[in-house]
Structure formats: C-alpha cells, structure tokens
Write a structure and sequence with these properties.
binds magnesium ion; Molybdopterin biosynthesis moeA protein, domain 3; 30% strand; binds adenosine monophosphate; 407 residues; 7 helices; Molybdenum Cofactor Biosythetic Enzyme, Chain A; 6-stranded mixed sheet; 4 domains; 5-stranded mixed sheet; Molybdopterin biosynthesis moea protein, domain 2; 28 strands; alpha/beta
Length: 407
C-alpha cells in the first residue's frame, strides 16, 4: 500500500501532454494554445476617436470656458468605418463618431457633451488638451509583439484578442478522450427497472460529468459484467477509442473482481494497487503503451474522490493546462474527528468563509457509498495518515471543489 502523495507522484510522472491540432477560433475556447501568437498588425490599426464629438486642433480651445466659447466651422462628419479627405486646420472642426479615424491635422477630440452640438458651426465650452479622446494606433497590441505564448488557457477575452488579430485558425492541444467502463453484475442502466438485488449504474454518469467538467471528452462504454471475457472485450474497446481509460469496480479482493486479471493478461504494467486512503483504498493504476488506465474503486464516493484527487490533474495536464490542482486552503475544523493511524482520510466538507478565514463542517455520514454527503460538499478535507484526532478549532487542508459559501 502506498501513500496518496506517492500515488499522485507516480501518476504525474506517466502523463504526456497531448499532440496539437489546428481548430477554428471558436473551437479553441477552453483549450490551451500550442503555438506562440505574434501579431502582424497594430491594434487598434489606426488612431481613432474614443468619443462621439469633434476632431479639432487643441490650441483652438486655449482659455475656452462656458463664458468664453470658441466657435469653429464644421467641415463635415466622419462615421466609424469611413476615412476622411478633410484636413482639420485651426478654426475648423470635423464631426466624428467613436471608432472613426482621426483626420489629418486634428490632434484632439472634444466630446459632444462639451459643445452646443452645432451643425454648421460648433461652440466649445472648455479647454481640451492635446491627444484627449484619441485611442492611439498600437496602444493595445504592437505589430510584432508576442501576444500569447504557448500554454495560455483560452478564455473569452483571449478569443476576442485572437479575433482582433485575424487568427481564424488556432493551434491547440488535442482534447483527451476518456473511456469510462463500469463493471458489476449488480448494475442496471438508469432507464431500466430495478430488479431484486440490482442497483443503478451511477458511476458512469458521475465520471462522464467529471470528465466534461475538465473540458475533455468522455466515451462511456456499456456495463461490463463480472467475468473475464466481457470485461476484456470492453477494456480492449475502451483502449481502442480513448487516450485514457477509467474503470470502476472490480479492483478489490472479491472472487469476481476481474479487472486486474484482465489488465495483467493484456500486458498492462501495474504501477500501483492500493493507496493508504479512505475512501478509495483499492485504487489501481497501469500503463499500457501510450495509454494510462485507472482502476477506480466501485463505491460511488470512492470513484468521485479518486477522480478529483488523481484523474482530474492528469486530464488537465494532458490538455496542456498549467494549473492542474484544485485550490488548497487552510481551514478551521468545526468537529472532533477520531481515526486510526495508517490511512489518510478524504473528508466531504462544507467550506464557509468569514472575515477571510475558512471554516469546514462535515456534510454528513462518510461511508464510501453515501453520495448525498458528496453532493452537499464543496470541499474535500485532507486528514493525514498519521493523524488520529482532529479537534474543533484545528487547522486542516482542504481542496476546494467548488466556491466556498459565505458564513
Ligand atoms: P466493487 O469495487 O466492484 O466491489 O464495488 C463496490 C461497491 O460499489 C459495490 O457495492 C457496488 O455495487 C458499487 N458499485 C460498483 N460499480 C458501481 C456503479 N457503476 N454505480 C454504482 N455503484 C457501483
Ligand atoms: Mg463489483
């Protein structure tokens, strides 16, 4: 049996970042850039007006006030998208809309609100400094600038910048496909009636949702029954269609736990089996060629917690992400909890924040089959292996799987 830190270390060592592919700009959303992006233009491409108003020569407004108006003759008007043939000289103004290019000769824009809105002539109420209300060419991005390095996580604001640079196609790391195989003779599909002795297959669905929440692609397989032939056929299929395979159930010590035998038979290299933790002790991990395989324990909470702690980070790493772990905070425990030494506990907790401090309370019974207390949790508190007693007021480390609540 190895420690959780050791298990995570072994897993992370085996992960390889995905190859890249070129996709349409919008399909790069949520993914990670696999190229440096250099701008071949200035953004904005030309000096333009930040306001609706009048393009003028700043010195014409020297000493202007409500009591001492300055009157300028209007040459014409300029909309966004058009260019002007007028040159603005002293004594003249060009009516200009936001986004329109600054005409030759003008060195400032007086906004509408500081004028009488005149059409043939305009009166200006105040002094306007040179350069006011002008957005300069290249003030956002300069031609030749490396705007993003490889590794940037593409959010809506990056999509906007890439669009303004004319990047209609973007190189990103390929999304991993994650095959999911639930095993068990007792399982029925969710739209089937519950015959005596049967339970519904929930793990396939919680895992699919977890894979989707990482931004990767789940590939659910049909339920594998607890025999070597069925399990082998479906594991082979899962390996064929995926970059990583997750199995659930069938990795304990029972007579019908055949997942390990099948993977042995297929020549997979077992990297570890059994981690000193609760829930999720029977967790197993293999490599077979380029593929990584997780044998997640069947209990629904063990499956979810093992995914959170071990699978999520590697999926994010495969996708090229650099922040692969949930935020970890110190929090004040609001219970007394006794445990035996020898196994770390991953405890389902509710995290609340007050005055910048985090407080955690248990969300309910901690049995590894009790999904309701998992559903109420926004954090997983880590109680170290050697700890035997946590008292009210003690500090514990918590992985935030959701936003904390306000106290
Ligand atoms: P196992 O690891 O196969 O011994 O399964 C441990 C427990 O988890 C058993 O009570 C199973 O019925 C339950 N279990 C296994 N797979 C699933 C699943 N896909 N959905 C819900 N419960 C499951
Ligand atoms: Mg089973």
């Amino acid at each position: 049996m190895i420690k959780p830190e050791e298990a995570l270390r072994i897993i992370l060592e085996e992960v390889r970042i995905q190859p890249f592919e070129e996709v349409e700009l919008i399909d790069s959303f949520g993914r990670v850039l696999a190229e440096d992006v250099i701008s071949d233009i200035n953004v904005p491409p030309f000096d333009n007006s930040a306001m609706d108003g009048y393009a003028i020569v700043a010195s014409d407004t020297a000493g202007a006030s409500k009591k001492s108006l300055r009157r300028l003759k209007i040459l014409g008007e300029l909309k966004a998208g058009d260019v002007s043939n007028f040159e603005v000289t002293s004594g003249f103004a060009l009516k200009i809309m936001t986004g329109a290019p600054i005409p030759l000769g003008a060195d400032t824009v007086v906004k509408k609100e500081d004028t009488d809105l005149g059409d043939d002539e305009v009166s200006i109420f105040c002094e306007v400094e040179k350069g006011k209300n002008i957005r300069l060419a290249g003030e956002d991005v300069i031609k030749g600038e490396r705007i993003f390095p490889t590794g940037v996580h593409i959010r809506p604001q990056e999509i906007g910048l890439l669009a303004s640079l004319g990047k209609s196609k973007v190189k990103v790391f390929k999304l991993p496909t994650v095959a999911i195989l639930s095993t068990g003779d007792e399982l029925v599909e969710i739209d089937e009636p519950l015959a005596p002795g049967k339970i519904r297959n929930s793990n396939t669905y919680s895992l699919m949702a977890q894979v989707i929440s990482c931004g990767a692609r789940p590939f659910p397989l049909e339920i594998a029954r607890d025999n070597v032939d069925a399990t082998k056929r479906l594991i082979e299929k899962g390996l064929e269609v995926s970059d990583t395979l997750l199995t659930t159930g069938g990795v304990s010590m029972g007579d019908y736990d055949v997942v390990k035998d099948v993977l042995d038979d297929l020549g997979a290299e077992l990297k570890f089996w059994k981690v000193a933790q609760k829930p999720g002790m029977p967790l197993a991990f293999w490599r077979l060629g380029e593929k990584l395989i997780f044998g997640l324990p069947g209990n629904p909470v063990s499956t979810i917690v093992c995914f959170e702690e071990y699978v999520r980070p590697i999926i994010l790493k495969m996708m090229g992400r650099s922040h692969i772990f949930r935020p970890e905070v110190d929090a004040i425990f609001e219970h007394d909890l006794q445990k035996k030494s020898g196994r770390a506990f991953f405890v389902r907790v509710n995290v609340k924040t007050k005055d910048g401090k985090h407080y955690v309370s248990l969300t309910g019974p901690q049995g590894s089959g009790i999904l309701k207390s998992m559903s109420l949790a926004n954090g997983i508190a880590i109680i170290p292996s050697e700890t035997t007693l946590v008292k009210t007021g003690d500090k514990v480390k918590v992985h935030l799987i959701d936003l904390p609540e306000d106290h």
